[in-house]
Every structure is written in structure tokens, then in C-alpha cells.
């Protein structure tokens, strides 16, 4: 049985999901892969302790504090590869970014097996716990804002809220046209 709660954030409505003890999902309304890690038996239960903790975490985050992912019991469902990438995302400091290539190099070192930036991009894109597992902090090789399941505008807003200087970020659409 999975449990769910809907909450309002400064960036829109969010769906939280739990296995009863751990947070297994956090998606913006309309986000790609919305609710993917939940099974079909769902009970809405706003008062679940993990949902209360998550709401407080999000309130602190949106107030400009820097809460750590480790403050919450997280249990994202996915392959061992995806989980290793998501763990690395949790180590990207607030207000900083990394590229898919940076993370691929880390995964390669950790696993002893060559990993592509494209494979990392697939794992990042399927992150089921947005914001808390900070996939929004991952950029394209040229520093462009690419591939955020919650939408590029939200990615920009999250990075700006964390104080990331976006004045030097190339326009993702312009960069794509330049490659043609």
C-alpha cells in the first residue's frame, strides 16, 4: 500500500508519496513520470509523519534555508544504477551545479565501468523525488538548462532561488539550433 498527500508550494501543487515510513515520490502536478513509483493501491493520508516532515523540509527550502536530503527518510524505487546516480545528486551542494558528464565520471570511478553522460541523463530524468534529490542542479555540458522533468522554467526558478548565477547560462533552444 502506498500513501499520498497533495500540498501547495510556491512553485505549484505537489504530490507526495510514501510506503508508510519513507518518502518514495515528490512530483509537481503535470510533471513527466508523475506518480510512476506508486502502486495502484493508494490511500490519501495527509497526517503521515513522513509527509509532515517533508512539508516542513519544503517550507525551509522555499524560505531560503539549505536543508539536506539526509534529513528525510528517502526510498526512491529504481535500479541500482539509478539509485547510485540519485545518491550522487544528493551530494551536489545547495546553490551549485554539476554536468551530466561530471556525474558520469563519478559513476565510472565508483563502479569501475565506463558510464556515459546519456545514461546518467536517463537516471536523472527519472528521479522520483524532485527538489529533495536535487536533479535540478544538473546542467548540460555547455552549462545549458537541459532535461528537467518538472519543466525548464521550474528548473530556472529552483536554481535562481538557490542563488545560482543564470546570466551565463546559454539558452537551451538556441544551443540546439546552433548544432543543426
TrEMBL record:
Against Pfam families, the record matches this protein to: DNA_binding_1, Methyltransf_1N
One of the GO BP terms on file: DNA alkylation repair
Entry's EC annotation = 2.1.1.63
Query: Entry's SUPFAM superfamilies?
Result: Methylated DNA-protein cysteine methyltransferase domain (SSF53155), Methylated DNA-protein cysteine methyltransferase, C-terminal domain (SSF46767)
Tell me which CDD domains the record gives.
ATase
Q: Please give the catalytic activity noted in the UniProt record.
A: a 6-O-methyl-2'-deoxyguanosine in DNA + L-cysteinyl-[protein] = S-methyl-L-cysteinyl-[protein] + a 2'-deoxyguanosine in DNA; a 4-O-methyl-thymidine in DNA + L-cysteinyl-[protein] = a thymidine in DNA + S-methyl-L-cysteinyl-[protein]
Domain of life of the source:
Bacteria
Q: Which residues form the Methylguanine DNA methyltransferase ribonuclease-like domain?
A: 3-76
Answer whether the UniProt record assigns the keyword Transmembrane to this protein.
no
Say if the entry is tagged with keyword DNA-binding.
Answer: no
- Keywords assigned by UniProt, alphabetized: Cytoplasm, DNA damage, DNA repair, Methyltransferase, Transferase
Question: Which InterPro entries does this chain map to?
Answer: MethylDNA_cys_MeTrfase_AS (IPR001497), MethylDNA_cys_MeTrfase_DNA-bd (IPR014048), MethylDNA_cys_MeTrfase_DNAb (IPR036217), MethylG_MeTrfase_N (IPR008332), MGMT (IPR023546), MGMT_N_sf (IPR036631), WH-like_DNA-bd_sf (IPR036388)
Per the database record, which ranges form the Methylated-DNA-[protein]-cysteine S-methyltransferase DNA binding domain?
Answer: 80-164
This one is known as Methylated-DNA--protein-cysteine methyltransferase
Q: What organism is recorded for this protein?
A: Megasphaera cerevisiae DSM 20462
Amino acid at each position: 500500500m502506498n500513501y499520498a498527500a497533495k500540498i501547495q508550494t510556491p512553485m505549484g501543487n505537489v504530490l507526495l508519496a510514501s510506503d508508510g515510513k519513507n518518502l518514495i515520490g515528490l512530483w509537481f502536478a503535470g510533471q513527466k513520470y508523475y506518480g510512476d513509483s506508486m502502486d495502484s493501491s493508494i490511500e490519501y493520508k495527509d497526517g503521515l509523519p513522513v509527509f509532515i516532515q517533508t512539508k516542513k523540509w519544503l517550507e525551509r527550502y522555499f524560505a531560503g534555508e539549505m536543508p539536506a536530503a539526509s534529513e528525510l527518510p528517502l526510498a526512491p524505487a529504481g535500479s541500482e544504477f539509478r539509485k547510485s546516480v540519485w545518491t550522487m545528486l544528493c551530494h551536489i551542494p545547495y546553490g551549485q551545479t554539476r554536468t551530466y558528464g561530471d556525474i558520469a565520471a563519478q559513476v565510472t570511478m565508483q563502479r569501475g565501468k565506463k558510464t556515459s553522460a546519456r545514461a546518467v541523463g536517463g537516471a536523472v530524468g527519472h528521479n522520483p523525488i524532485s527538489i529533495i534529490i536535487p536533479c535540478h542542479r544538473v546542467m548540460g555540458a555547455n552549462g545549458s538548462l537541459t532535461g528537467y522533468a518538472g519543466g525548464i522554467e521550474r528548473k530556472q526558478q529552483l536554481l535562481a532561488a538557490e542563488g545560482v548565477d543564470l546570466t551565463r547560462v546559454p539558452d537551451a533552444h538556441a544551443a540546439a539550433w546552433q548544432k543543426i
